[in-house]
Amino acid sequence: MKNHGTLVILIHMNKQNVIIHGDICYSKTQKELAVLENGYLICENGKVAQACPQIPELYKSFPIEDYTGKLIIPGLIDLHTHAPQYAFRGLGMDMQLLDWLNSYTFPEESEYINLDYADKAYSLFVDALKQSATTRALIFATLHTPATLRLMEKLESSGLVTMVGKVSMDRNCPDNLRQESADAAYKATKSWIETSLKSFKNTKPIITPRFIPTCSDELMQKLKLLQESYSLAVQSHLSENHGEIAWVKELCPNVSTYAHAYEQFGLFGTDNVPTVMAHCVWSEGEEEQLILDNKVYVAHCPGSNTHLSSGIAPIRRFLDRGIKVGLGSDIAGGSHLSIFKAISDSVEVSKMYWRLVAQNSPPLSLNEAFYLATVGGGSFFGKVGKFEPGYEFDAVIIDDSKIPTTNPLTIEERLARTIYYSDDSLIIQKYVNGKEIISGKTLERSMSSC
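RESULT FIELD:
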């Protein structure tokens, strides 16, 4: 019996044609949920074929995974997090950004020159990410090539789909985190990119200048050469904190906004340079227009922006203007890896923005925030975040019966409680590109059905 259970696991983890049965919920539009109770979600070759009340004859031969009474939602997307900061999450939350970087972040990241330390710390991060509701993520590493490749190896083995950045810095940072020259940074980054592209399928490199204050003009020019040569995406930080913005003005007197400090080097969006900028708390006017015109994604990180006293990003205004927005955990500025927590935080801070800053800016609804966590961020990866034909089959199975209640709840109400509880222990399985990736929980379920 035990051997049979293990065999079931191996088959399940490798198949990409499957039907999962349960209570299906996803964003139909930015404000409206699509709900299907006791429905069937059909995966064909790793993509969504359809969500339907009955199994069509065409798919009768597909294996069925029965999650009756469980919630089935799209995988959540983390558009901004820092893997090397996971080990010290929850520390320094009473500081502002620049003080926090110097007191906690830079000392911790300097440890990653030690590959044994990196291996241990990145194991903690990847294991937690795998057990969370996140299926795809954009991740900052450090400037250390061996450690960054070790992180990518672990992510590749996890089954998640990610983009990882080897951070570039050559000024205004501790000596042990400063690359000796822009040319040395270029050569190291080029070698890392080529190794990454040859070695990994689901873990891709992304150009990652930490932020303008730590990157010289020469370094930015060389990163642009790499971006063009390998057609890579870009991630960085923008207009997070007043002190940071003032610093950029001193360093870049030739540009009118922080965004233009990236744009002058060709590292700020357009169709050929897919770009995510974290925070954008104080982006407005000319900078906001450039974000829109260049199709730059905003990674909204409400937990981090609150902890580090940065402010509240005007997400309602961004959405009304058509700016692309997703959510980020921003570990360890944010203290929770859970994107469920980022959803609830985004609703909460939007209420404060409405009440205290702009009474003509209605707070986000929970449905809108859920959309940002799925379709909003997912679109950076392509057709991701919905259960509609042709979308990547990324799904999370949730046993919300563990949350006690006295009354029957609708699927929408069950989703709301799941979000606000933000408890990863409710997750019993998740799929990425049609493959089950939480093997231990699969073993328990498969063996019990034998």
